[in-house]
């Protein structure tokens, strides 16, 4: 049984929503969707929970449901919000993810959220 069929049987809506969203962007072959299903994990987080702390290495996140903010603290101590992510959107600390280096940003849930997480390790073949 394929991973996608298993996910449908388990009624894991977040996995299925993500794969359907990806399919709406590009017409992927079944084997490509199967590969994506193997790479992702689902996480549910509460309002106020920090998904990425300053200094950690970022993953690639898909906010299936919820709202996230990517922010950093300026040199004078002010908080600057770089990005707000709503339902069916992606967020990540770009340089941290691409270069696998410590992030100078944090990501926080602004409400209870359902996320799909993809690490760079799973994208490297």
Automatic annotation (TrEMBL):
Residues 43-123 form the Cyclic nucleotide-binding domain. InterPro entries: cNMP-bd_dom, cNMP-bd_dom_sf, RmlC-like_jellyroll. It holds the Pfam family cNMP_binding. SUPFAM superfamilies: cAMP-binding domain-like. Gene3D superfamilies: Jelly Rolls (2.60.120.10). Signal peptide: none annotated. This is Cyclic nucleotide-binding domain-containing protein. The lineage of its organism: Bacteria, Pseudomonadati, Bacteroidota, Flavobacteriia, Flavobacteriales.
